[in-house]
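User: Quick sanity check before I run a bigger batch. Here is a single chain. Can you write out its predicted 3D structure?
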Amino acid sequence: MYRIARAAGQVRERRRQATHPPRTRPELLAHGPSQVWPWDITALKGPVKGIWYKCYVVMDIFSRYVTGWLVAAAEDAVVAKDFLGEAITRNGIEPHTIHADRGGAMVSKPVSELLTDLGVLRSHSRPRTSNDNPYSEAQFKTMKYVPDFPHRFGSLEDARAFCDAFFLAYNHEHRHSGIGLHTPASVHFGTAEQISAQRQTTLDRAHAAHPERFTRRPNPPALPQAAWINQPTEDQQLQRESVGARVDIRIGSQLFVSGHAHERQIGVGRLGEREQVSGHAGSREGVLEACSLGRHAQRRAYIVIEEVLENPQEAGMLLRAHDVRCLADVAHRDHPPRRHRST
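Assistant: Done. Predicted structure follows.
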């Protein structure tokens, strides 16, 4: 009987179970310092079993410069907020995007409100996908694989003393192979090009003095032009260009706003309660489709947005959570949910 049902395509799950759409892979690009900052929290073993210290670290993906670090007794949302605020203030320039995983402190309300007030976009890794935050993971491995990294720290002060010495050497002495064997501080503060020119002068002198030692003209390691988190392949880029840009914005799990960009590019992002998402628009108006996904049915309303800034390449179009809620109200008003009569 089951063979007959399988041949007819009738052997399947018959219950109406919830289906979860695939998570969007974060794709972040930085062409210079202070554009994309990832941050994460790692655990450090305390003096006895069961005691752990939390090390907060935020860095720049282009220069690999650690812009801030903190060792605390526990993971806390308020501590994370103060930590990020001090790192941004110390840097002097707000980054464009701050990327993190989906830990409790990363998605907390204090951190979200801080980044919203500063105008910094948020980005999060997919659940259980450590590859979406590779720079932080690699930096933690570098720290924990140094020869003098202790098996356990005797106290919180010992952990802070070790991290102070390590991050000082990492920023100003460590020659990173991913940035042309420069120090992260040199790339972050703009002295790497001058040092590369001095290296080229030294290599030219050595080549002129002893040409028999070289098979070709020596050149110093090149500086990177861009830094990616999840760089798309060429096939993915061609597919996106053929399909067209699309904006997907989420508030909680109830409201979605999506729309196709006709001959323009619009950024992709998620909205929190007070967060804003910016994108590029090449015309004076854009059509967005608002979908309110409730328990009863899918409601749609077509809204024309006419308020687009004059210079779309720099500022783009800002869509706030309040405006999105207005779209949901319009969709609910035009298509109210059906009410089931009780028997």
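The domain at 28-179 is CATH 3.30.420.10 (Nucleotidyltransferase; domain 5).

User: Great, the batch can go ahead then.
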